[in-house]
């Protein structure tokens, strides 16, 4: 089953936000995330809020677009009633699940609702995730005609035994086909890869990277496999049927990816993401890392506006009941205090290429910089210009870098 929702305070039935959410909103970009929670099969490693047909318990895929549109309309009303300034959407991202299990016309209708309620910034980025076996050329043409600009394919691997271990159903030979169809439709292309799957060798991983690069995508993501509690994969590892991922091998795989991608002309802009150039970075995901505002539509979707975070009812039927009754689908929320917001700011900005201004760190964090340079974890030249940017080694140890920045800050604060 999907992971549990976080703990928090009850969300109000009308969804209204506290006055603090509006402070500085005119300086923050606004994005929309639309969660489509349907999958043909549940992948063994996945703990996302997704459902196969036999898990829907009365919810129907054919009704989903109408329910999501109801929440989109509600979202504008809530933001307006909460005294948020009117802002156009700069990005829209359809994730899941497998959004393209829905008809292309349903995705276009949902996108149209965002356009109707908020409008789009000039050059807005509109992305959908897709599995290689969930779209055809006509679907991609329809999406492009309806306003989508970008598609992110879940390639994951080019090696059959790795795909089988992940419970992925597509044939690797289909990836070049769908990339070509997306290109013909005028869509930018991103490919998602996963490394560290049980049984995957460094040779296997190089094969996947080579095959991905042969498609000349505009953007590429490479994520280390995380074994989540409660998943089929976790149970298989616990029973000894599969070996747990090796940290050392995953580090070698990351370094290989960065070397091959850099040699092919791709630049890293976030720890797990590379783009052909700055214009092909995922602006939607950058909004998350930069602490911008976004409204998450759909079952279990999370939203963030001005330091207020909330999340929707998880199951599609519970979500549908709420929006049909014109009640906010949000079931919990938290208003982040200043220390938590600062921790998240350091955590997220440290991960991106632009880094974080050293002068903006607390005193202890600034004192930690010299040691991080000495350990080869941050770029010395960038630090001299006042910016903390991770080296390749630092990217492998990004969480440790953040802990040192924050731990130093906490230690010094406790002395004063």
From TrEMBL:
GO cellular component, as recorded: cytoplasm
Domain Radical SAM core stretches: 24-267
Subcellular location(s) of the protein: Cytoplasm
Protein name: Heme chaperone HemW
Family matches, as PROSITE patterns: RADICAL_SAM
CDD domains per record: Radical_SAM
InterPro entries recorded: Aldolase_TIM (IPR013785), Coproporphyrinogen-III_oxidase (IPR034505), Elp3/MiaA/NifB-like_rSAM (IPR006638), HemW-like (IPR004559), rSAM (IPR007197), rSAM_sf (IPR058240)
Family indicated by similarity: Belongs to the anaerobic coproporphyrinogen-III oxidase family. HemW subfamily.
Function noted in UniProt: Probably acts as a heme chaperone, transferring heme to an unknown acceptor. Binds one molecule of heme per monomer, possibly covalently. Binds 1 [4Fe-4S] cluster. The cluster is coordinated with 3 cysteines and an exchangeable S-adenosyl-L-methionine.
Chief location: cytoplasm
An example Gene Ontology molecular-function term: coproporphyrinogen oxidase activity
A Gene Ontology BP annotation from the UniProt entry: porphyrin-containing compound biosynthetic process
Pfam families: Radical_SAM
Superkingdom field: Bacteria
Native organism: Agromyces badenianii
UniProt keyword annotations, A-Z: 4Fe-4S, Chaperone, Cytoplasm, Heme, Iron, Iron-sulfur, Metal-binding, S-adenosyl-L-methionine
């Amino acid at each position: 089953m999907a992971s549990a929702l976080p703990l928090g305070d009850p969300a109000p039935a009308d969804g209204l936000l506290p006055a603090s959410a509006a402070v500085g909103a005119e300086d923050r970009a606004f994005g929309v995330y639309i969660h489509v929670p349907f999958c043909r099969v549940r992948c063994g490693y996945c703990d996302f809020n997704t459902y196969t047909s036999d898990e829907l318990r009365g919810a129907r895929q054919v009704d989903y677009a109408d329910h999501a549109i109801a929440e989109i309309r509600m979202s504008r009303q809530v933001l307006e009633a909460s005294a948020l300034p009117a802002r156009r959407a700069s990005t829209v991202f359809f994730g899941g699940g497998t959004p393209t299990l829905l008809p292309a016309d349903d995705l276009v209708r949902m996108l149209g609702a965002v356009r109707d309620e908020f409008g789009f910034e000039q050059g807005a980025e509109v992305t959908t995730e897709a599995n290689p076996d969930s779209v055809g050329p006509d679907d991609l043409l329809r999406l492009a005609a309806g306003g989508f600009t970008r598609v992110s394919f879940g390639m994951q691997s080019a090696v059959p035994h790795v795909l089988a271990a992940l419970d992925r159903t597509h044939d690797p030979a289909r990836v070049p086909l769908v990339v070509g169809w997306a290109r013909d439709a005028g869509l930018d292309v991103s490919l998602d890869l996963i490394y560290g799957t049980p049984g995957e060798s460094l040779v296997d991983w190089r094969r996947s990277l080579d095959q991905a690069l042969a498609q000349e995508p505009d953007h590429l993501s490479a994520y280390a496999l995380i074994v989540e509690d409660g998943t089929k994969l976790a149970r298989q590892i616990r029973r000894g049927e599969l070996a747990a991922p090796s940290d050392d091998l995953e580090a070698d795989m990351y370094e290989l990816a960065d070397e091959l991608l850099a040699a092919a002309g791709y630049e890293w802009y976030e720890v797990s993401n590379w783009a052909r150039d700055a214009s092909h970075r995922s602006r939607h995901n950058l909004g998350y890392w930069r602490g911008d505002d976004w409204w998450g539509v759909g079952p279990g979707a999370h939203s963030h506006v001005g330091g207020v975070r909330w999340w929707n009812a998880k199951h599609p039927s519970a979500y549908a009941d709420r929006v049909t009754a014109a009640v906010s689908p949000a079931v919990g929320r938290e208003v982040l205090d200043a220390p938590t917001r600062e921790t998240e700011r350091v955590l997220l900005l440290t991960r991106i290429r632009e880094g974080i201004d050293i002068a903006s760190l607390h005193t202890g964090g600034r004192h930690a910089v010299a040691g991080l340079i000495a350990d080869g974890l941050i770029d010395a030249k960038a630090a001299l210009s006042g910016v903390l940017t991770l080296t390749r080694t630092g990217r492998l140890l990004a969480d440790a870098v953040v802990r040192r920045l924050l731990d130093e800050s906490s230690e010094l604060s406790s002395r004063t």
